[in-house]
Design a protein that fits this description.
Layout (H helix, E strand, L loop, with lengths): L1 E3 L13 E7 L4 E8 L2 H20 L2 H17 L1 H12 L3 H18 L2 H4 L4 E6 L2 E9 L2 E5 L7 H12 L3 E5 L6 H12 L7 E3 L4 H9 L5 E5 L2 H13 L3 E5 L5 E4 L5 H13 L11 E4 L2 H16 L19 H17 L2 E4 L18 E4 L6 H4 L6 E4 L5 H10 L2 E2 L1 E5 L3 H10 L4 E4 L15 E2 L2 E2 L6 H7 L1 E9 L18
Parallel strand pairs: 1-3, 6-7, 6-9, 7-8, 9-10, 11-12, 11-17, 12-15, 14-15, 17-18
Antiparallel strand pairs: 2-3, 4-5, 5-21, 10-20, 13-14, 16-19
The structure holds nicotinamide-adenine-dinucleotide (NAD).
Length: about 500
């Protein structure tokens, strides 16, 4: 059996006390096992990071950016291999894996411009003979803890900005699809990054706790489910660290009566079922406004959903592949049963789906519920599978209230031809990322990514200038260069510029 290990700055024998199985979701078989590291291994990784980081921080930002340029070219050169590796562990179709990698590369492209982003502020003559300037300095050692659903994009969101700003970065990826981050580590080295600046340390809760408690790790970026995000945030902050922790989601798509329903059905099919619904920016709730809209939408949605092709991740015709593992498949099917028990109308049932020749694969067929009510648990909680729930709203105000009052506030979309309604919606909805006729409003790399409410704990978003802020500390210098004449009197009151 293949062993997947860490990517560290030092040689180690690869033996671990504990391992976790890595499945091929297409056939349900264990294809490898991943070593689960412990605190002693983390200590060694931190020592290597400490040894390497000061010299890396002293490299001028333009040269650091050149490593990013090289890395981008190398990832592009190896795109095919990386996409296949990603799909083989995650189960998303190859084209979607390329998208996962490409979205991460777009953050690397942002990092190619890091000299510009690191320019400080300067005020000449802030007082008599006094100038004030500020600089952004790296935190030192940062860590990233990432979920299974974007094994390339999310590690690159964090590591690109952390490294480009002069930090050493230790990544603890999901133990469910741990291989791509190791390959990214190899490509970083090939791109010219010094040893010790990007390390991958595999593990589970034990390693997460070791990271949260490590005194030499100054900042932690986490992405995963909300309860764990909250836990990571609290424990990290209690230990005096800077923490950003992104959590789960339940994104709504509001369909106004004037929307182009054919376009909405296309958009919803991709956004609700792409990647088997395992995206924090998926659109698993659709809210038609008015009875007429609901009926017309339902009529168009049913055949579109029934026509979706579920296949293995290498099937170029498949719209989506299997979910990550058997436990997650069972959880999604349990939620479907719960929806039935709660009284929602199960219109298309994806349970019990099998693919010929891949009977043990973790496949779930596309599922549609209608008549879902806000009081239902299946509405309130994140399912994270290929399940679309229709919640009917009577008016624009009712529709606006649904995502605004939901515990999650990651993304939301409105489909309409009415600019006024769209503008009102964007301004008033209590959610962090809004799409107007855009079903998956993941902001581009030079803007920032982050939800509200239980979708994110902490103050700063991922990537863009928010990422630069997160991975750096501001130092502000107030300077005076007396000309050597008489020195002034002592001042016993707080100095002012007044
Ligand atoms: P998860 O919370 O199970 O795991 C995330 C990370 O936490 C992994 O590295 C895992 O090893 C670690 N972990 C797991 N259990 C832990 C525990 N008890 N204590 C400490 N650490 C633990 O999430 P997942 O299933 O890998 O990913 C899916 C979730 O991530 C969904 O909820 C999805 O919405 C969310 N997500 C959010 C965003 C966002 O930006 N808001 C993006 C992608 C995914």
């Amino acid at each position: 059996m293949r062993d997947i290990s860490h990517k560290l700055a030092f040689a180690h024998d690869g033996e671990a006390a504990r391992y976790s199985d890595v499945f091929n979701p297409n056939d349900g078989q264990v294809q490898a096992r991943v070593a689960l590291g412990d605190r002693a291994l983390l200590d060694r990784a931190v020592e290597a990071a400490k040894a390497a980081q000061p010299a890396w921080a002293a490299v001028n930002p333009q040269r650091r950016a050149r490593v990013m340029f090289n890395f981008k070219a190398l990832v592009e050169k190896n795109m095919d291999e990386l996409a296949h590796l990603l799909s083989s562990e995650h189960g998303k179709v190859i084209a979607d894996s390329r998208g996962d990698i490409q979205r991460g590369l777009e953050v690397i492209e942002f990092c190619c411009g890091i000299p510009h982003a690191l320019k400080g502020e300067y005020t000449q003559g802030a007082g008599p003979g006094i100038d004030v300037y500020s600089m952004r300095q790296p935190i030192g050692i940062g860590a990233g803890i990432t979920p299974f659903n974007f094994p390339a994009m999310i590690p690159l969101w964090m590591s690109g900005v952390a490294i480009a700003t002069g930090n050493a970065f230790i990544l603890k990826p999901s133990e469910r699809d741990p291989s791509v981050p190791v390959r990214l580590g190899e490509l970083f080295l090939e791109a010219g990054l010094p040893e010790g600046i990007f390390q991958v340390i595999q593990g589970d809760k034990e390693m997460v706790d070791a990271i949260l408690d490590h005194p030499d790790i100054g900042a932690i970026s986490f992405v995963g489910s909300s309860d764990i995000a909250h836990y990571v945030y609290k424990r990290g902050v209690d230990n005096g660290k800077r923490v950003q922790a992104m959590g789960g989601a339940k994104n709504h798509g509001i369909v106004m009566p004037d929307a182009d329903l054919d376009q909405v059905v296309n958009d919803l099919s991709g956004a609700a079922f792409g990647s088997a619904g395992e995206r924090c920016m998926a659109l698993p709730v659709v809210v038609p406004v008015g009875e007429k809209t609901a009926l017309a939408l339902r009529e168009k949605l049913i055949p579109a959903i029934q026509a979706l092709r579920v296949g293995v991740s290498t099937d170029p015709e498949a719209h989506y592949g299997p979910v990550i593992n058997a436990a997650h498949k069972a959880k999604i099917e349990d939620y479907i049963q719960m929806g039935v028990d709660e009284g929602a109308e199960l219109v298309v049932d994806g349970r019990g789906f099998t693919l010929q020749g891949h009977e043990q694969g973790f496949f779930v067929g596309p599922t549609l519920f209608d008549q879902v009510k806000p009081t239902m648990r299946t509405y309130q909680e994140e399912i994270f599978g290929p399940v679309l729930q229709m919640v009917r709203a009577e008016s624009f105000e009712d529709a606006l209230a649904l995502p605004s009052q939901h515990q999650y506030g990651n993304g939301v979309a409105i489909f309409t031809r009415n600019g006024h309604a769209a503008r009102e919606f964007a301004a008033r909805v209590n959610v962090g990322m809004v799409g107007i006729n855009v079903p998956i409003p993941v902001p581009v790399a030079y803007h920032t990514f982050g939800g509200w409410k239980r979708s994110a704990f902490g103050d700063t978003n991922q990537h863009g200038m928010e990422g630069v802020k997160f991975w750096t500390k501001v130092k502000t210098i107030t300077q005076r260069w007396p000309d050597g004449g008489a020195s002034g009197d002592s001042a016993f009151v707080i100095p002012t510029m007044g």
